[in-house]
Specification:
The chain has about 400 residues and is of the alpha+beta class. The protein folds into three domains: about 110 residues, Jelly Rolls (Sandwich), CATH 2.60.120; about 55 residues; about 140 residues, Histidine kinase-like ATPase, C-terminal domain (Heat Shock Protein 90, 2-Layer Sandwich), CATH 3.30.565.10. It has eight helices and 15 strands. Strand 4 and strand 5 form a beta hairpin.
């Protein structure tokens, strides 16, 4: 039994005093052969050897456990030991793996604090144990040994830091991948729902021919929308835009046609979309129809996500001397003040349980690629308002 309270199995070589016997070629023959102890004068080294104990342990043995007193220093002669940290799951986290010649337990000895991690033999091991008082006694008489321990601690901390950074970056990559996957799922969910409902109505045995024709056109539009969403996400992640805007388009007509399409979709979610295109100003803008359609689809469907059945959305268009001003209003809960400054940043969300936080970032990029701006605020309907501008053709 060692002072740490760990019971080691009985073995012919257990609890032996130091003897310069080689088990296998290439393994350490004496404690004095270890570089960290080469500075210790022979008389002091004899004291260290006399205090040391050597143990032979099978795989799976716990050499030390996290939180136990730092009662001594370990030097691994043969085998592999894993330094572990307790976590919420039963497996714990492996900080590093040690091999022949490695030290462990020195930090708890020097700090006079409990073990900050555990050590488990992953293979059969032979290990030296040097009691804490013996280590401290040698350190007091040999300052060079203190410096070597500090260098070893520095090296170990650098290694732990490197592993931690690598694991953190890997977790961030996986988290980012998961967010993009949720973004794609979120963008496809709405058109897929429309496809399902449309297919059910259009394929009903009693569906009239004109209903079947309308269902076919709606299905085609949703398939185009899915393709456009995937294409836009690819453009966003690559940080590029379509090369050119199309020829100038009568913006009022474009917006009216899109509103009719979106109204059919919002009705399926029991939300009313209102607009009055007769009051809208006339003018032409240069745009990429599919990309700009994506902006309106995103804003309207975001509003639907926040509304209960019976909710209301309004689409408005105003004129300024140089820009067309488009606004999407709703009577939902609105946008919290603390999220508003970060609303268009990637992965920022404003209350949606299934939100991904990428849609509004894509909207901002599309509008900026069109030479406009986009912002959010409060609506006179009591909910949120999103406003974007597009330059009129001169």
């Amino acid at each position: 039994m060692i002072g740490s309270g760990i019971c080691f199995p009985t073995h012919p070589d257990s609890a032996l005093r130091f003897r310069p016997t080689l088990y296998n070629e290439g393994v350490m023959a004496t404690l004095g052969d270890h570089p960290i102890f080469s500075c210790v004068p022979p008389p002091l080294m004899n004291e260290l050897v006399a205090a040391a104990r050597r143990f032979h342990l099978p795989a799976g043995s716990h050499l030390v456990r996290e939180g136990e007193p730092g009662d001594g220093l370990y030097l691994l002669e043969e085998g592999t030991v894993e330094i572990t940290l307790a976590t919420d799951d039963a497996c714990g986290r492996i900080l590093t793996r040690l091999g022949p010649g490695d030290l462990f337990g020195e930090m708890a000895v020097l700090e006079e604090k409990p073990r900050s991690a555990g050590a488990i033999a992953r293979t059969e091991v032979r290990v030296w144990f040097i009691p804490r008082e013996a280590v401290l006694n040698i350190i007091r008489q040999c300052p060079e040994l203190t410096l070597r321990f500090l260098r070893e601690l520095s090296r170990r901390l650098r290694e732990f830091n490197r592993i931690h950074i690598e694991q953190t970056l890997q977790m961030e990559r996986l988290a980012l991948l998961g967010r993009f996957a949720r973004t794609i799922f979120h963008d496809l969910k709405s058109p897929l729902n429309v496809l399902q409902l449309t297919a059910e109505m259009g394929l009903a045995p009693d569906a009239a021919p004109h209903c079947r024709a309308e269902a076919l056109q709606r299905i085609k539009r949703q398939i185009e929308r899915i393709n456009d969403s995937i294409h836009e996400i690819m453009l966003f992640t690559e940080g590029r835009a379509e090369a050119e805007l199309s020829l100038s388009t009568e913006y009022r007509d474009f917006l009216h046609s899109l509103a009719e399409e979106l109204a059919t979709e919002t009705a399926l979610r029991e939300v009313q979309l209102n607009w009055n295109s007769r009051s809208w100003p006339s003018g032409r803008v240069r745009l990429q129809p599919r990309r700009l359609r994506r902006v309106l689809q995103n804003l309207v469907h975001n509003a639907c996500d926040m509304l209960s059945p019976g909710g209301r959305i309004e689409l408005r268009l105003f004129n300024s001397s140089t820009t067309a001003i488009t606004e999407v209003h709703d009577n939902g809960p609105g946008i919290a003040d603390e999220i508003r400054p970060r609303l268009f940043e990637p992965f920022a969300t404003y209350g949606k349980a299934q939100g991904t936080g990428l849609g509004l970032s894509i909207c901002r990029k599309i509008i900026e690629d069109h030479g406009g701006t986009i912002e959010a605020g409060s609506s006179d309907l009591g909910g949120a308002m999103f406003r974007f501008t597009l330059p009129w053709c001169r």
